[in-house]
């Protein structure tokens, strides 16, 4: 993916939005069950980022967020034609969830395509199966993709809509979400798999503890 002025500006907008969410939640840290898992770069909070969506899964079935996010999940927005960033980022996410599985945690990696023109369910299934058999691929209409991107404050821009080989500028954060809670954390693309697994494990432990009343 080429770096462009528009992409850099969009990244700044995403960072501002995430920072605003962090400020909001930091004021209520005493009631934040995930406070011990957060770091100085953490941004998030239920109700600030994320929201309901309706998309089409890699099997061609229409699904909602409640159908897909049934356990701790790691969301990434990208596209299958992406020459470098998306494969690397999704491979990292898959490695992190595999590390977590070895530790007894179950986390689902989810890939949401921002390329509704080219990413058919069949292509998504091929992509996700290569990355991780557990990974779920989602696509949708341009309007549906725009809506879910807005909910998660992500950015994408098709460089040349008339070119079948066009590249798409897009943000590269991965989002940790929980059933009934929603968004709790994001990870930048330079976060190593082990560090991501360690931090996600902390969030899952806090979530389970809150559910059990401990």
UniProtKB/TrEMBL annotation:
Matches recorded under Pfam families: SCO1-SenC (PF02630)
Listed PROSITE patterns: THIOREDOXIN_2
Cysteine-cysteine disulfides: 82-86
Gene3D superfamilies named among the record's database cross-references: Glutaredoxin
Binding positions (Cu cation): 82, 86, 170
Domain Thioredoxin: 44-209
Molecular function GO terms recorded: metal ion binding
Keywords in alphabetical order: Copper, Disulfide bond, Metal-binding
InterPro entries: SCO1/SenC (IPR003782), Thioredoxin-like_sf (IPR036249), Thioredoxin_domain (IPR013766)
Family: Belongs to the SCO1/2 family.
Name listed for the protein in its UniProt record: Thioredoxin domain-containing protein
Organism: Thioclava indica
């Amino acid at each position: 993916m080429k770096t462009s002025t528009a992409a850099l500006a969009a990244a700044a907008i995403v960072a501002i939005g995430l920072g605003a969410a962090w400020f909001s939640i930091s004021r209520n840290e005493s009631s934040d069950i995930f406070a011990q898992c957060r770091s100085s770069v953490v941004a998030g909070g239920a109700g600030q980022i994320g929201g309901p969506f309706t998309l089409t899964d890699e099997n061609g079935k229409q699904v909602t967020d409640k159908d897909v996010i049934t356990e701790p999940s790691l969301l990434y927005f990208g596209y299958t034609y992406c020459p470098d960033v998306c494969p690397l980022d999704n491979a990292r996410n898959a490695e992190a969830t595999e590390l977590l599985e070895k530790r007894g945690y179950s986390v689902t990696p989810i890939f949401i395509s921002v390329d509704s023109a080219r990413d058919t369910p069949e292509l998504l299934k091929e992509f996700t199966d290569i990355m991780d058999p557990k990974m779920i691929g989602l696509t949708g209409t341009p309007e549906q993709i725009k809506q879910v991107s807005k909910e998660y404050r992500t950015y994408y821009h098709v460089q040349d809509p008339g070119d079948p080989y066009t590249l798409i500028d897009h943000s590269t954060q991965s989002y940790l979400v929980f059933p009934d809670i929603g968004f709790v954390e994001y990870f930048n693309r330079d976060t190593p798999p082990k560090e991501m697994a360690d931090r996600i494990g902390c969030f899952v432990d806090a979530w389970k503890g809150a559910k059990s009343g401990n």
